[in-house]
Structure formats: structure tokens, C-alpha cells
Amino acid sequence: MREALNQGLIDFLKASPTPFHATASLAARLEAAGYVRLDEREAWHTEPGGRYYVTRNDSSLIAVQLGRRAPLDGGLRLVGAHTDSPCLRVKPQPELVRNGFWQLGVEVYGGALLAPWFDRDLSLAGRVTFSRDGQLDSRLIDFRAPIAVIPSLAIHLNREANKGWAINPQTELPPLLAQLPVDASRDFRSLLAEQLEREHGLRAERVLDFELSFYDTQAAAVVGLEQDFIAGARLDNLLSCYAGLSALLAAGEEENCALVCTDHEEVGSCSACGADGPFLEQTLRRLLGDGEAFVRTLQRSLLVSADNAHGVHPNYADRHDGNHGPQLNAGPVIKINNNQRYASNSETAGFFRHLCQQQGVPVQSFVTRSDLGCGSTIGPITSSQLGVRTVDIGLPTFAMHSIRELAGSHDLAHLVKVLGAFYQSAELV
């Protein structure tokens, strides 16, 4: 099971270079399992026992299994994650020609570690909006091939490089795409139109706009002398999306279960399709109805907010509280912060810890050092939006927000097992 899950994650990461592609990958797997797509613009006709999913902005997805047990009796079992990761996004008018090289201007999305982006084989993917036969259309594209690189400056020209230096994203991050003849120029939108024709067989009259991200073409892999680790891009937080999907597809038919994978977590979640927007509440109200029954159902429900945690890096162990240092391959981590950066409380954390113990899954705790700031997740946002009880958890990782992150190769199976038990748990907190 462990090897199959790890390979499934690797395949999922390869198919999901952007939130748009991640959502499409999730949708394809749900449809293959019999889930029916709902359109937000149309009337919904659902029934007990039905399995449905809905997307918004092509980058967020909610999947719901309506169980045989009435939601008002047993509540909802929700698992939340996010589809976005820090990256380099292409600017609207990105063309740069400098010293005979064609480059693209980029904007940093989220809190990215910038140094690892240098000297990588980069490709480009995302959503393109265009006109065709007088009509608007949008498609996802993925160049797949390594079409760009951000070369480092040689040590001879920057003797202070190994002492650390501030990277200027405006001047130092534009990737190189090609070397051009003297006085030549290239049109980026023409390049996108060519890719639309190659990938979809569509002739775009005019490329109107785009949302495109560079990504590392090196595939994720199980690595290490004893194959202890999974290395790959976008583990934060596609690892949790994949774990939640795997658990949902294996869930029984009795309970009401939901998987919520939203965009824009890395930039605050404040969008129409983010956790700080109305997407989840509007979806649940359409499925469960308004009024007192809706509130009563939520008060019988529980959200497991799954987002990666900081494992203890052996070279930087002093960056952790000595009593709260999560280890890779030692199970999921309950994340706690008394200033409400995480939404766990004693009851929800106790429930999750008890569930892990019942399943024979190791479980850990994380509290950040008292003299360091603490990150946050969709947990507090969703909890405050809906009033649903929440526990924040995640798998320990290294190099969070790097172009290539590292997790334990045993931990995915641990997380899928406990989330599967959560989806089938007859009693919540």
C-alpha cells in the first residue's frame, strides 16, 4: 500500500503543475470513481447516497459524498487542503529582450524560497483565455518540456554569494527562454497561441489573457539510501490534497464526507474561490439547506485541516521548540497555537490523537518556538467562517516553500489511514 500511494502521489504531482491542473486532476479521479459534476450556474438535484463535486475558478474543488445517515444526525466529516504553492507567475506584459536574450518578467507568488529557483530546468503551465470564432474560451496548457532557466551569477562575479545576498525578484529572476538574433523580438502571446494549437488543436484569433506559472520539470521521486524520503515540487500542499482524495475514494457509504481543496492559501485565501471566500458555505447551504438545520448540522461536524508541518531539520534543530520537534516518518502532526494561528483545541486535538491511536498510526505535536512567528492555514479561516470545530494537522516536511520539498516516504500511508478512519467514524467530538 505504501509504495502504491507514493507512486500515486508522484503521478499526481506530475499532472498538477498549477492549481488549475491540480483541480482538473482531482476532478478526473473523482469522475472515474463515479462522482457527478455539479455546475454552480444550474439547479442542483442531489439525493442521499449520491457523490458529487463542484469547482470554482477551475482552481478550487469541493467533493461531497452524501451518506445514508442524515447530515443532521451525524454531521459532516470534512478534510480541507489547498491547491496552490509558492511559485513564479508570468506578468501580463512580460517580454524582455536584454543583451540578445529573450526573457519573461515574473512576479513572486506567495512566500517562496527564491534561491532554489536558480539553475533549474523550468517549464510553463496554467490557464489561457482567448477568442475563437468570435467567442471567448479558456484552456489549460502545459509546455511540459524545459523551455526556460534562471542561471546563477558565477562565483567569480559575486564573491559574496556563499555569504548570502538579497535576491532582487525584479532584476534577478526573469527566466531566459531563448537567444535572439540582433534586433529580433518575440511575441509571448503568439507563443501561447502556438501552444494552444499543439495541445488542443485550437486556432486562437487572439490571446486575451493568461495565468501562467513556471515550474521545475524534475519529477518527484522516492529518494535516500533506504528510500526514506519523497522529494518533489508542490508537496505543500498537494500531498494533503492527494491524501484526502485517497481517503475519500475509499470511504464507506454511511457517513457524509467532504473534501475541500481551495486556491490562494499561500496569499491569504481572500478570494471568491479561497477559504476566506464564500465557496464552501454556499456549497454546503445548497446541499444541506438554510436555517436552523444548517447550523445544527455544522455543530455536529468536524474539519480536519491538513497542511504540511515543519519537521526538525538536523542542521537547524535549534529552530524548533525542544519538546515539539516533529520527525519525518513518525506520523501526522497536530498543530497548536494559542494565538489562533491554528484552530486546534483540546477536544479536536484529543479526537484526532485518539483516532490515530485506534488505527495504530503514530502522531506528533507541533508548537512553534515562543520567540518565532507562526504560520497559519485554512483551519482558522474556515472555522471562523462556518463555526465548525477544527483540528489543524499535517505531515512533517523539510524545505517548505522551496521549488523542491522533502517528506517522509512512510508518512503518506499514515495520513491516508487516519483520514480514512475519520471519514468512517460514527462519532465525532
UniProtKB/TrEMBL annotation:
Entry-linked InterPro entries: M18_aminopeptidase_2, Peptidase_M18, Peptidase_M18_dom2
Residues forming coiled coils: none
Binding-site residues for Zn(2+), renumbered to this chain: H82, H156, H401
GO cellular component: cytoplasm
SUPFAM superfamilies documented for this protein: Aminopeptidase/glucanase lid domain (SSF101821), Zn-dependent exopeptidases (SSF53187)
Source superkingdom: Bacteria
CDD domains according to UniProt: M18_DAP
Cofactor section: Zn(2+)
GO terms of biological process kind: proteolysis
One matching Pfam family: Peptidase_M18
Enzyme Commission identifier(s): 3.4.11.-
Molecular functions per Gene Ontology: aminopeptidase activity; metallopeptidase activity; zinc ion binding
Keywords on record: Aminopeptidase, Hydrolase, Metal-binding, Metalloprotease, Protease, Zinc
PANTHER family: ASPARTYL AMINOPEPTIDASE
Family indicated by similarity: Belongs to the peptidase M18 family.
Protein name in the entry: Probable M18 family aminopeptidase 2
Organism: Geopseudomonas guangdongensis
Name of the encoding gene: apeB
